[in-house]
């Protein structure tokens, strides 16, 4: 199967990342993105990632580049160091998708590549373009990237930011599982590590199963936690549960972080909670298609129109992008134009401590909740066929949504987002990363959003049967 760009990065089955295919895509990246003499490299903890990283390393050296191999490291830590040194970067990760898949994320010296760069890379790949430098490539291994990433947050938040808090860290197989406890301790928290996995376990922070939620809530009660945190495989999507056992949605983390840091303009996918516009906390909200490259493109457009604008971006998976120098509790924090899990976790935990608890902090927001999940093993042609039938036939759409209520309006920015007459929202789309069908719902309470989600998914199952 060919490797393809999804919502963020090049994705495919792990077995399809052969040395020859990897080399061709690495050459396309070097040529299309005009990458210079040095490229940073890191990977997650999937079983296939060391092999693929080896293929990337070999391809870069063959092209005459100096490869700075950082080993196993969160994506935002890789991006932070590479951008600071004006270099390109490649992250080997499949993020949250199943263990039999993997991927490559590409960075220019100024940050994560955008959709225009993806198109240029596809064109370069198709013609076999190369950008060779004179002389042999070289390899350097460094171990300072994690410390630089820790210092970024320790300096901005300070040693007392989380003092008195008891925080659990669900270690699983996240590449951030050692770094995250170290950071929380540096900010003053007592940390309890939980459930370190000996095998790769994919975590989708936007679609946490009821069974996993129950496990996390049980740990909160058993260990008397103020909060429980984790990330996805490559450490750029956060997960946070309050001590009472309620999962905080990623877009809520984004809203709270943007507000705390003083953002004026927020850029976010169309699937994010509609409370953003109703809060009155931001001068403008810009919504785009799902995927960090689209969020970045909108952020860059806002900055081009007003270089002084305090622009931030976030996604419903919780990944946060900072586009301006913000004032954190203990000092300034520099922009980082890539998805980051640590910034929203540290910010929201510190805000919860100041507010007297997570429940008190969440009570400052409008009463609007989202829920999300996905149906697995849905062939793309089946998923797109159903969406096309709903998009082109109002009658077919009305028949499907009849049990949930009449349609008030339809948004086709990315898939189908239907606002019902009672204000509830159902958003359907095919995944850009895996054979999955995504479902997002929104309602006045978490319980209502979850009930709507389960009902819609049950109605979809027979229609998506291959």
UniProtKB/TrEMBL annotation:
Domain Alpha-D-phosphohexomutase alpha/beta/alpha: 4-119, 148-241
GO cellular component, one term: cytosol
Keywords from the UniProt entry: Isomerase, Magnesium, Metal-binding, Phosphoprotein
Keyword Ion transport: no
GO molecular function list: magnesium ion binding; phosphoglucosamine mutase activity; phosphomannomutase activity
Cofactor: Mg(2+)
Entry-linked SUPFAM superfamilies: Phosphoglucomutase, C-terminal domain, Phosphoglucomutase, first 3 domains
Signal peptide start and end residues: none
InterPro entries according to UniProt: A-D-PHexomutase_a/b/a-I (IPR005844), A-D-PHexomutase_a/b/a-I/II/III (IPR016055), A-D-PHexomutase_a/b/a-II (IPR005845), A-D-PHexomutase_C (IPR005843), A-D-PHexomutase_C_sf (IPR036900), A-D-PHexomutase_CS (IPR016066), Phosphoglucosamine_mutase (IPR050060)
Span of domain Alpha-D-phosphohexomutase C-terminal: 403-457
Record carries keyword Transferase: no
GO process annotations (BP): carbohydrate metabolic process; peptidoglycan biosynthetic process; UDP-N-acetylglucosamine biosynthetic process
Gene3D superfamilies according to UniProt: Alpha-D-Glucose-1,6-Bisphosphate, subunit A, domain 3, Alpha-D-phosphohexomutase, C-terminal domain
Protein family membership: Belongs to the phosphohexose mutase family.
Family annotation (PANTHER family): PHOSPHOGLUCOMUTASE (ALPHA-D-GLUCOSE-1,6-BISPHOSPHATE-DEPENDENT), PHOSPHOHEXOSE MUTASE
Protein's recorded name: Phosphomannomutase
Organism: Pseudothioclava arenosa
């Amino acid at each position: 199967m060919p490797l393809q760009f999804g919502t963020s990065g090049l994705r495919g089955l792990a077995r399809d990342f052969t040395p020859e295919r990897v080399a061709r895509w690495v050459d396309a990246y070097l040529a299309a993105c005009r990458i210079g003499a040095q490229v940073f490299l890191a990977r997650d903890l999937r079983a296939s990632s060391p092999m693929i990283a080896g293929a990337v390393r070999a391809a870069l050296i063959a092209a005459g580049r100096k490869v700075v191999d950082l080993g196993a490291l969160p994506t935002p830590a890789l991006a932070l160091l590479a951008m600071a040194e004006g270099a390109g970067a490649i992250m080997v990760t499949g993020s949250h998708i199943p263990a039999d898949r993997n991927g490559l994320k590409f960075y220019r010296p100024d940050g994560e590549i955008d959709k225009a760069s993806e198109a240029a890379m596809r064109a370069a790949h198709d013609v076999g373009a190369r950008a060779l430098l004179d002389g042999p490539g070289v390899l350097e291994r460094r171990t300072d990237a994690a410390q630089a990433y820790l210092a970024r947050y320790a300096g901005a938040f300070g040693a007392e930011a989380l003092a008195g808090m008891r925080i659990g860290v669900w270690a699983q197989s996240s590449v951030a599982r050692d770094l995250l406890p170290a950071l929380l301790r540096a900010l003053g928290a007592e940390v309890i590590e939980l459930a370190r996995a000996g095998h790769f376990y994919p975590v989708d922070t936007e679609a946490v199963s009821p069974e996993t939620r129950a496990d996390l809530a049980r740990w909160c009660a058993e260990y008397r936690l103020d909060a429980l945190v984790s990330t996805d495989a490559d450490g750029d999507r956060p997960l946070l549960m309050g001590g009472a056992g309620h999962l905080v949605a990623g877009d809520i983390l984004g809203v709270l972080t943007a507000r705390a840091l003083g953002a004026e303009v927020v850029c976010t996918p169309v699937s994010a909670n509609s409370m953003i516009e109703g809060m009155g906390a931001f001068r403008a909200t810009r919504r785009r298609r799902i995927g960090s490259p689209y969020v970045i493109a909108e952020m860059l457009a806002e900055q081009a129109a007003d270089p002084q604008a305090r622009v931030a971006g976030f996604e419903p998976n919780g990944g946060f992008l900072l586009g301006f120098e913000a004032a954190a509790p203990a000092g300034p924090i520099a922009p980082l134009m890539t998805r980051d899990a640590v910034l929203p976790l540290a910010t929201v935990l510190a805000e919860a401590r100041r507010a007297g608890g997570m429940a008190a902090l969440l009570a400052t927001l409008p009463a609007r909740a989202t829920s999300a999940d996905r149906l697995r093993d849905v062939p793309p042609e089946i998923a797109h066929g159903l969406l096309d039938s709903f998009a082109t036939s109002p009658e077919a759409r009305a028949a499907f949504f009849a049990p949930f209520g009449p349609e008030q309006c339809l948004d086709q920015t990315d898939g189908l987002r239907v606002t019902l007459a009672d204000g509830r929202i159902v958003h359907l789309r095919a995944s850009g990363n895996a054979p999955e069908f995504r479902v997002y719902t929104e309602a006045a309470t978490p319980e209502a959003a979850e009930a709507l989600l389960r009902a819609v998914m049950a109605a979809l199952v027979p229609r998506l049967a291959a």
